[in-house]
Amino acid sequence: MTPNPRQRRSRNIFASNMAANGVVCSSKKKIQNGKLILKEVNGKQNVFSEQAKNAQLLETKSSNGRPPKKPDRSKESFEEVPLYTAVMTYLGFYLLMFLGYINQLFFTPKVAMERNRDGYVPLFDRFESFYLRYVYRRVRDCWNQPICGVPGAEVILKDRITKDYGWTFEYTGTYTKCLNLGSYNYLGFAEATGPCAEAAAEAIKTYGCAMCSPVQELGTHPLVLELERTTARFVGTEDAIVFGMGFATNALNLPSLVSPGCLVLSDEKNHASLILGLRLSGATIKVFRHNNVSSLEKLLREAVVYGQPRTRRPWKKILIVVEGVYSMEGSVVRLPDIIRLKKKYKAYLYLDEAHSIGAMGENGRGVLDYHGCDPKDVDILMGTFTKSFASAGGYIAGSKHLINYLRVNSHAACYASAMSPPIAQQIITSMKIIMGEDGTLEGKKRIMQLARNTRYFRQRLKQMGVILYGNDDSPVVPFLVYMFSKIGAVVRTLRTRNIATVGVGFPATPLMEGRIRFCLSAAHTKEQLDKV
């Protein structure tokens, strides 16, 4: 039967979409029983049925024969604090402090008093103890809320009350189901059912719950080895090493890479795990302004010209430390510019992709994929499995020489327990779904759904006139409320509407920049986002 012009036109459109995505198709193609048969795709014979119906999922580049227009990756917003808001924020904070000192002086409860400490100096920092007891305590109910079950698109909160203004809590025995915008579940893999959960359960039957030993002793098992190979293939490096804790991946590996006599240039908004690791290393640390390439280049130039203080000897090495997506700001690193400076001044680059791996880029491979950069241009690639993969742990990827060095010298590799088998299996299964190795387009669908949700949610909030921070493509959405009291008010009000989210204030953020942080997921529907 001769196809009509409409059928020929639709087949030509699909073939051009495939070609635009780097898939080489031979000229011999036909349709049988509703299936598009391509005689040769990248050297292999292939059959597309459901894929043909979902061709728009693969349509990521222009198919008009011209080079695709490079998207603008620099649309970020950081609105300055209005003067009136700044004045009111400071007044409100100092009023809280004043009331706290009055409370401490006249109404100190028994739970806040230490016993058998006569003659001892305070064990804890005096101001820190005061701040936790008399400032943070007033909004303590907004944090550390116990949950029940899987933190997916919705989450079940365990209800609690306080009868002494936040000093202690009691559980009521009731539960509240809320829309979840407080968990890092970017691709929606936090599920109680499905291929990931089933594979993890099977791993428990085969290998048990834990190895109870470091990798270098008795902790190695086949899933860890498979995970390391899969991770290296996913991020595009020679090798990778995995660890059971994301925070420790930074804190315990950085001291193995830099030491006294080395210079580290760190972004001012870097995560606490990076800061702790750098402090433990003993290296000299200089901070550059957030995502500011000019500030970074100035420090690099001075480091190369002047060398170490007093001696003026050259630094042993210079390491630039940045994140892919900054979890408090929602901003995306200006990676191409930083790679250019790294090459110009012969510095090393450490990239933390905890919040970007899986969540950014057309293929979910992080900011390298997002900006179209070569993984070989980054010396040390770090990431965690707690966000996009709905699991736990972290990885470092790079050259074979680097990974072999870390296997021997890293404290996390030598002393920490090996990754649990079900945890490793959860990561392997979700990572293969993202790469499409499960034979479906489920991973691509989730990546595109997260991108749509992010754009839509940010656009709707901006239309309402609220102040947002960060990049338009970042799934972390900081919503500025500024005042300390407003953080508690917004979190509590949203909870009465069955919406669970996270408030962030001083000292986790600057005093002037209290915020509500929304974390979006591919599991959220448009109706759920409209409700928020």
TrEMBL record:
The enzyme class is transferase
Against PROSITE patterns, the record matches this protein to: AA_TRANSFER_CLASS_2
Looking at the record, the residues that make up the Aminotransferase class I/classII large domain are 177-531
The name on file for this protein is: serine C-palmitoyltransferase
Task: Give the organism, scientific name.
Answer: Cryptotermes secundus
Q: What is its EC number?
A: 2.3.1.50
State the UniProt keywords alphabetically: Acyltransferase, Endoplasmic reticulum, Lipid metabolism, Membrane, Pyridoxal phosphate, Sphingolipid metabolism, Transferase, Transmembrane, Transmembrane helix
Q: Which domain of life is it from?
A: Eukaryota
Q: Which GO annotations describe the biological process of this protein?
A: ceramide biosynthetic process; sphingosine biosynthetic process
